[in-house]
Design brief:
Length: about 270
């Protein structure tokens, strides 16, 4: 199998996964595709979104000819992984909230799930909780506003701290000891955009917390699925978007990706 690893997200969140892959496998060739015309995915209706994700991924796979597709988006993976695997002839690696590692870390058995509105409510997410954290209290926080903050950050804008604080308020409340519940001690970053804001999240937290994302697990999974990821490959770095994204060019370059080319989605 040849070809790069194709990383797909609605927006710039997949760059957090690209970063983990690069840390583990610096010689792996990668290209990047994002559906910024439909961003944010977390507030879209399921049936239309599934169709859209399949259409964009098929077009991106045709353009990029990858050896594997990494769906670096929890909102897309918890909805459309099966459809993608049915429709594509290459392996598909998904990104889902890191409930299992969080449950292994939490001492208080109280975990926060910070994700999009769609991901916190999905049956797939409930299944992960039932399977790996059934003895834990889970405080689910839909923080779709943070997606916008991460996009702005990549475009070189200073984040709006008040908006970040407002999105995180339910987590901070759960992290304070109460008579009813043990304090939350671990937070799952269940949206790939959120690790891009991690330095603000950790600074704003009123107490030290474990922050868990899926990046390292995905890097390991990709290496299981394709051979030779740690052998030197011809670097790729192509980048595809579904809407013009000149404002992201500098940010994408910091992650090793070229000026984006426009994908035309006809289906
Ligand atoms: N990065 C995506 C995720 O991991 C979500 C962003 C969006 O709502 O489009 O869920």
């Amino acid at each position: 199998m040849t070809g790069p690893v194709l990383i797909f997200d609605s927006g710039v969140g997949g760059l957090s996964v690209a970063q983990s892959l690069r840390q583990h496998y610096p010689d792996a060739a990668m290209c990047y595709a994002c559906d910024n015309a439909w961003l944010p995915y977390g507030l879209r209706e399921d049936a239309a979104l599934t169709e859209r994700i399949v259409a964009v991924c098929r077009t991106a796979v045709e353009a990029c000819q990858p050896r594997v597709l990494v769906v670096a988006c929890n909102t897309a993976s918890t909805l459309a992984l099966e459809n993608l695997r049915e429709q594509l002839a290459i392996p598909v690696v998904g990104t889902v909230p890191a409930i299992k590692p969080a449950a292994a870390l939490s001492q208080t058995r109280h975990i926060g799930l910070l994700a999009t509105k769609a991901t916190v409510g999905r049956p797939y997410t409930q299944h992960l909780i039932d399977s790996f954290a059934s003895d834990c209290l889970i405080t689910r926080v839909a923080a779709d506003g943070l997606v916008k903050e991460a996009e702005a950050h990549l475009a070189g804008k200073a984040p709006n701290i008040e908006r970040i604080q407002a999105a995180l308020a339910p987590l901070w409340q759960a992290a304070a000891p109460s008579i009813a519940n043990a304090a939350l001690d671990t937070v799952v970053l269940g949206c790939t955009h959120f690790p891009l804001l991690k330095s603000w999240l950790t600074q704003l937290a009123p107490v030290p917390l474990h922050w868990v994302d899926s990046g390292d697990a995905i890097a390991r999974r990709v290496a299981q699925v394709v051979d030779g990821l740690n052998h030197r490959q011809q670097q790729d770095g192509r980048c595809f978007t579904t809407a013009p994204a000149a404002n992201l060019t500098v940010g994408l370059a910091r992650y090793g990706f070229q000026t984006p080319q426009l994908l035309s989605i006809t289906r």
